[in-house]
Amino acid sequence: MLHDPNHIYIFDTTLRDGEQVPGCQLSTSEKIEIAKELEALGVDVIEAGFPVSSPGDFQSVVEISKAVKNPIVCALTRAHKGDIDSAVASLQYAKHPRIHTGIGASDMHIRHKFNSTREEILERAVTAVKYAKGFVEDIEFYAEDAGRADIEYLAKMIEAVIAAGATVVNIPDTNGYCLPDQYGSKIRFLKENVKNIDQAIISVHCHNDLGLATANSVSGLQNGARQIEGTINGIGERAGNTSIEEVVMILKTHQSLNLNIDHINTKAFYELSRMVSTQMRMPVQPNKAIVGSNAFAHSSGIHQDGFLKNRENYEIIKPEDVGFPSASIVLTARSGRHALRFHLERLGHQLSKTELDETYKRFLTLADSKLDLNDDDLLGLITVASAR
Ligand code: KIV
Ligand code: ZN
């Protein structure tokens, strides 16, 4: 591939970090179905699983490796030889295999998870990368809990793993702790202070514990990261991961950022969102950005009036650009005459101003008592009008 310095690589971890959600476990065939759709979406990397974690996960990585041909297929490991051996075996059929290995980088993790020291953890990180590099060329290293890690130590670790052969360095905000400017500054610091950073791609992997995953990811990209990790619908551990559809549409909407995401077929988002939601039995919240059922629904009178005059008054993304069926004008007790007239005309009824005023009064009474107004309700209002 020609190297475009502003190409943003999309690393999808729906099938690994996303699948860690309780109750969301998928069968291998369900995972293959999602992987094929991710390939059609155009993602650069599919993290297919954590092969050492269970025979089922191992098999899923094997089958996904056989099923897709364009994206890199990635397998997660801890910084353990056994994990790496398992990942290598699971990736045997992958056209483009990647091993994603790593270890905790914050003092919190070093002391209270590994009961270890900075020096020892650094050595384990380097050993794991060197070991994995003996099997696979494409090695991504994750510095877990980098969001809370000491920046000088993090920089030292990143420099060491790149020297050991890592081609992508993942800086996870594992606990969704950082503010966007803090996270962006971390990425900037690494970009400016790690001597060999140009030999690797910096990746952002943000969790959503404070609702900042998308903002932090974009901040990371603005400060020099070129790969973003996330999931469809933002599913994942606890409050979830970054929503891929959100980051992609931010970059599309804000072309001035000059971050290239043209290889993503955004029209596939809505269908894929439904598929992931159904298979994982995980409903999408109606107000979810980009793919929620209300994402393109206009319901208050002020907005509806503005939208009907010119959709761009209230539409910064076209629904069809993300495969959403269409924008909707929802009739509620907050709707105005303009929206009512729009729907009545859609049903073939042209009303004079006086008729519309009359009908609108009856409409408000009905809308105050009924949440979902359908076409029959509207036709009922007209019938009452003509019977008078
Ligand atoms: O959140 C995290 O730190 C992770 C790593 C395993 C990449 O998911
Ligand atoms: Zn994660």
From TrEMBL:
It comes from the Bacteria. It is an enzyme of class 2 (transferase). Its EC number is 2.3.3.13. Pfam families: HCS_D2, HMGL-like. PROSITE patterns: AIPM_HOMOCIT_SYNTH_1, AIPM_HOMOCIT_SYNTH_2, PYR_CT. One of its GO terms (biological process) is L-leucine biosynthetic process. GO terms for molecular function: 2-isopropylmalate synthase activity. Keywords: Acyltransferase, Amino-acid biosynthesis, Branched-chain amino acid biosynthesis, Leucine biosynthesis, Manganese, Transferase. SUPFAM superfamilies: Aldolase. InterPro entries: 2-IPM_HCS-like, AIPM/Hcit_synth_CS, Aldolase_TIM, LeuA/HCS_post-cat, PYR_CT. Residues 8-267 form the Pyruvate carboxyltransferase domain. Pathway: Amino-acid biosynthesis; L-leucine biosynthesis; L-leucine from 3-methyl-2-oxobutanoate: step 1/4. Belongs to the alpha-IPM synthase/homocitrate synthase family. LeuA type 1 subfamily. NCBIfam families: PRK00915.1-3. This is 2-isopropylmalate synthase. It comes from Mucilaginibacter arboris.
